[in-house]
Amino acid sequence: MRSYDFSPLLRSSVGFDRIEHLFRGLERASNDGGFPPYNIVKQDADNYRISMAVAGFTEDEIEITANQNSLKISGKSKQEKDDTDYLHRGIAGRSFNQNFELAETIKVVGAELENGLLHIDLVREIPEALKPRTIAIGQSKVIENQTEAA
After folding, report:
1. Are strands 96-101 and 70-75 parallel, antiparallel or unpaired?
2. What's the whole-model pTM score?
3. Number of folded domains in the chain?
């Protein structure tokens, strides 16, 4: 397991303390064996789609949970308990857990299961307060304390 030292970055920045947690999560994700396979597609500047190959799973066997800055997708196959005598088993059908770290402005907007692919749609929603705004140059309006002296 690699160790990253983020102290130089954290000394000169504010609000990036989640980076160490994010990199540890990415390292765990790279060791998960890659099941089930998935794609992450950037459709345009604000829309993304995760497509995951979940052949053999039905909608009621898959659970999608969005919680703050994380997305968890888990599948529990009912076929795992199947006592069929396979000559070759190429379709895994085993249970899985897949976690994704999401930026604070990314929201999950929908999911659909189509032809063995689970599609999860995400959108970047920037709050009005965080959008760039133009500041007019002119007189500064200073708010004065309006308490009357007695």
Report:
1. antiparallel
2. 0.68
3. 2
